[in-house]
């Protein structure tokens, strides 16, 4: 899937388990494992953008997760723990110009992050 985005700074919101790391990998002997395509995708997110990570993991597990992400060069600005396991719902307003300001991408659990984006300066 490819998103066509405006040149405005963005906020990226990612679930952790099953989206960027193997689901419940932290509970196994192998520990967390980055999913294919994640590192490359995160490398393309502009430094001006904000990255929010969400997880149902407990706050007590944050330090281990932060260490894993740092070791794998996955940057983020905020890490929200203790999130409910159900749906994540994003509600945002459309710009008067008609620019869509919210997107949702559902990917299969533990599969590669096959997502890309392009900045369209005409938006």
Task: Give a brief description.
With 123 residues, the protein is an alpha/beta fold.
Helix content: 10-25%
What value does the average pLDDT take?
96
Beta-strand percent range: 15-25%
Structural class: alpha/beta
Determine and state the CATH class of the domain at 9-85: Alpha Beta
- If strands are numbered along the chain, what order do they take across the biggest sheet? 2-3-4
Runs in which pLDDT lies below 50 for 5 or more consecutive residues are: none
Integer-rounded radius of gyration: 15 Å
N- and C-termini, Cα separation: 19 Å
Structural features, described:
- The protein contains 2 helices and 5 strands.
- The protein is α/β, with parallel strands linked by helices and 123 residues long.
- It has a domain at 9-85: HAD superfamily/HAD-like (Rossmann fold), CATH 3.40.50.
- Strands 2-3-4 form a 3-stranded parallel β-sheet, with no helix packed on it. A two-stranded parallel ribbon has the order 1-5.
- The longest helix is centred in the middle third of the chain and has 10 residues, at 62-71.
- The radius of gyration is 15 Å and the shape is globular.
């Amino acid at each position: 899937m490819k998103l066509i985005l405006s040149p405005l700074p963005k906020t990226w919101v990612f679930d952790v388990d099953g989206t960027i790391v193997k689901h419940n990998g932290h509970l196994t002997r192998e520990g967390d494992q980055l999913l294919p395509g994640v590192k490359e995708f995160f490398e393309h997110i502009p430094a001006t953008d904000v990255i929010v990570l969400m997880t149902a993991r407990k706050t007590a597990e944050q330090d281990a997760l932060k260490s894993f992400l740092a070791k794998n060069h996955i940057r983020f600005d905020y890490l929200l723990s203790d999130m409910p396991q159900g749906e994540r719902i994003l509600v945002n307003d459309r710009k008067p110009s008609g620019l869509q300001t919210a997107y949702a991408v559902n990917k299969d659990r533990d599969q590669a992050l096959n997502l890309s984006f392009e900045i369209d300066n005409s938006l």
